[in-house]
């Protein structure tokens, strides 16, 4: 028996016991299998948690204390920070950081999709090659890879194009072809491919196998199945990892300062090497990193929200523990 009280809760009677069920949510009882669902919008009263609020107040106090100390500390020299925040040299380094991030992320994603497809291939040789690539570039530090590509000229002085055993048609010095900027793009991309291939592979595996089986029954080729069925559906699982990967690439570009590429951090270093104001210039770089990262995080949230339409989890109500439940 069910007693509907308009604008309130639903009273459900089961085995002589009255249970209060919130009318906005869905509730599956432990001893009954059907569903009661109404459209009344009435929230569930939750118990006040003193520990949760105490922890929040403590964290807020620590953050405000840190902000106060930073504002009062003269070593930060906030006036100098404001002076150099829009310095042309800093803005030029920021521009280099932004386009490097875009290029490296795009190339890493393109080749990552290829390596992920190779990793999932039924051909054991192709799958093994992809696995070895991922293993090698994940096992070595990014700085080591970057220095290796920067000094590749010592290993291969010239790049020759021609047939083996014959005089080369074209011979180019390696250092003239792979500059510091080229070595940076190459190192960051090849390192990023190993990681992008893994989260792309995870997204592809998240697509139900039945989708591929249905596509094969319709006569689609493997390439058509991947391009039209599997990959579009995998984007919902790939987007969160891709957003994190993009932000990581943004911050990862700072490592190329070791090979003297004038990105954001190296631009700040060039300035504080002249005026010895290390902390203020590092704060300038930090402010720009935080600002751009915050924008990318907002974009990621908006894209995730769009791709997750229709996939939100349903929330179910719990029976209220009060006087009515015991009656």
TrEMBL record:
CDD domains per the UniProt record, alphabetical: TM_PBP2
GO molecular function, one term: transmembrane transporter activity
Naturally occurring in which organism (per UniProt): Gibbsiella quercinecans
Transmembrane stretches, start-end: 50-71, 98-118, 130-156, 176-195, 278-299
SUPFAM superfamilies (alphabetical): MetI-like (SSF161098)
Source domain of life: Bacteria
InterPro entries in the record: AA_ABC_transptr_permease_3TM, ArtM/GltK/GlnP/TcyL/YhdX-like, MetI-like, MetI-like_sf
Cellular-component GO terms for this entry: ATP-binding cassette (ABC) transporter complex
Protein name as annotated: ABC transporter permease
GO terms for biological process, alphabetical: amino acid transport
Subcellular location: Cell inner membrane; Cell membrane
Keywords: Amino-acid transport, Cell inner membrane, Cell membrane, Membrane, Transmembrane, Transmembrane helix, Transport
Membrane topology: Multi-pass membrane protein
Alphabetical list of PANTHER family matching this protein: L-CYSTINE TRANSPORT SYSTEM PERMEASE PROTEIN TCYL (PTHR30614:SF0), MEMBRANE COMPONENT OF AMINO ACID ABC TRANSPORTER (PTHR30614)
Family to which this protein belongs: Belongs to the binding-protein-dependent transport system permease family. HisMQ subfamily.
ABC transmembrane type-1 domain segment(s): 94-300
